[in-house]
Amino acid sequence: MNFRLLKDSDFDQYLVLLNQLTDSPKLDFQEKGIYFYRQSMHSGHTMLAFDEDKLVGAISWFLEPKASHGMKDVLHIEDLVVDEDFRGKGLGKALVLEVIKNVGDEWVYKVILNCKEELRSFYEKCGFRQSGIQMRLDLGEKT
Length: 143
Description:
The longest helix has 13 residues, at 29-41. The protein is 28% helix and 27% strand. It is built from 4 helices and 5 strands; from the N terminus they run βααβββαβα. The protein has one domain: Gcn5-related N-acetyltransferase (GNAT) (Aminopeptidase, 3-Layer(aba) Sandwich), CATH 3.40.630.30. By secondary structure, the chain is an alpha+beta fold.
């Protein structure tokens, strides 16, 4: 398994894989540029996992700078997805641990994420514990 950061040439494959997690419409050239620009503005990254030339997993994250906690950041994990044919083989856990290892603890004091209840045990196996509750406000939706 090879890991590397998302490149422009990976984007269409990435959207196909991401559709296994959530609705991800195809983006045109300009929209891809806007995506990469916005991701860079928010210290965002996406790591991909390849089995030979096949994209089989992805995980996104961003860093939130804090004025507290010794000026260390919070690492937010988002959009972990593993291809259906590769699930149950440890790839999801490997992606989570690879991101944490690469970011390190020199500048990060905690890692947080939101997940569905049915994924709780998976993240516990990765070393996470439940902390608090999630609150959500969807913007732009009719109430």
